[in-house]
UniProtKB/TrEMBL annotation:
GO biological process, alphabetically ordered: vitamin D metabolic process
Taxonomy of the source species: Eukaryota, Metazoa, Chordata, Craniata, Vertebrata
Full protein name: Cytochrome P450 family 27 subfamily A member 1
InterPro entries per the UniProt record, alphabetical: CYP11_CYP27_families (IPR050479), Cyt_P450 (IPR001128), Cyt_P450_CS (IPR017972), Cyt_P450_E_grp-I (IPR002401), Cyt_P450_sf (IPR036396)
UniProt GO cellular component terms: mitochondrial inner membrane
Amino acid sequence: MAKKSFLVYSPPRNQVLNKAKYGPMWINYIGPQIHVNVASAPLLEQVMRQEGKYPVRNDMDLWKEHRDLQGLTYGPFTTEGESWYRLRQALNQRMLKPADAALYTNALNEVVDDFMVRLNQLRAESTLGDHVPDIAHQFYFFALEAICYILFEKRIGCLERSIPQDTKAFVRSVGFMFQNSLYATFLPKWTRPLLPYWRRYLDGWNTIFSFGKKLIDQKLEEIEAQLQAGGPEEPRISGYLHFLLTSGQLSPREAEGSLPELLMAGVDTTSNTLTWALYHLSKNPEIQAALHEEVVGMVPAGRVPQYKDLAHMPLLKAVLKETLRLYPVVPVNSRVITDKEIEVGGFLFPKNTQFVLCHYVVSRDPSIFPEPDRFQPQRWLRKNQTDALKGQHPFGSVPFGYGVRGCLGRRIAELEMQLLLTRLIQQYEVTLAPETGEVTSVARIVLVPNKKVGLRFLQRQG
Ligand code: HEM
């Protein structure tokens, strides 16, 4: 039987074709297993609202095999049932609520400051004096630096001119692990000792986990030193890892198993969303001009945005919502309802049916989003909502998933993207570099551009 990776394989264009051919629900087979694809907001809602206390996404066997071989504890993606629930209760602290995310504003602004310096260097070094040939690559390093700083409270040098060796090795190993996981998914197990992919897959993970362990060990030493200095009566509770360890939410061993999974989830997601947002803003100068007006109205040039400013920037939020509607980074997700039979679309399905949630095609449904392929952030603004939009379906676009198993990092992802976008638009007019042309999306675990997105960052006056 073919193994499933994090996301059940169903490329966006297949979703579109299959929905056109079969309607909003169809089945397909992966080996002997039946997948029930749901591709309309009401059906999605029916599946998700019937999930139990411990929702199951899919089996993640391949990731678990690595953890088992290395004697690591499972993280939020790999754990199930009650132990997942307990882990999520711990990890949700200081992460899930908007007020939790607000705590990281200064840290994120520090990383944004450094990104702006790095961007300026890159522009200055380009022939045109304002050109960045592959913005997704730069956002990748921004996102990695940001999530590491939040999780481990450590800067890892991604935005320096010369990136430290162990950070480079980490980045390489993430690519390596994902590439080789494809072979591991589709090739039979007996080929593992014969072909190099299995060793490479495990090595990729090992580097990822030892990178995390090193940062956790450093934190433990710091905590120990603080306790020695200040005594056990006054532990200093600051960032995420510090809080989790000192408040007893997680043991060091649990942190070692979980934090690398958070790290993996927090990089491609935000970096690709930022790339798509700037791509569309550069193709829609009037929307960019309106956003610029909103941004400098709240945060004039030279000022750094604060958390409270963001509440007054509805267009900024709408730009990100619209970006995620068009390009849900996770274009397909899944749920297995393990505890009961469920009825969906008038059919009764047995326990343990695997439902594939076709988010990409759902969020481009013209009956919910008129002119669905157009980038129109205004559709999310309350004052512009026509009668059609007032009836917008709550499951029309759910890029962060749903319910207790929904995205853990949603609030920090939103904050991180809002803070960076504010600064970029405040300082630059962004245009598409001529070599870029039309960009479409392809699914590589997450939804990414099919080619490099080159942009020009033209300095604004004043
Ligand atoms: C644009 C940014 C992001 C998007 C669109 C996104 C989207 C998603 C989606 C769709 C899921 C599956 C939810 C479900 O099954 O209902 C998910 C899960 C998850 N995300 Fe995110 N994510 C983003 C950023 C982040 C960041 C920055 C972190 C870092 C902490 C993160 C951590 C996680 C974790 C740990 C899970 C698994 C939760 C669980 O199974 O309990 N994500 N994300």
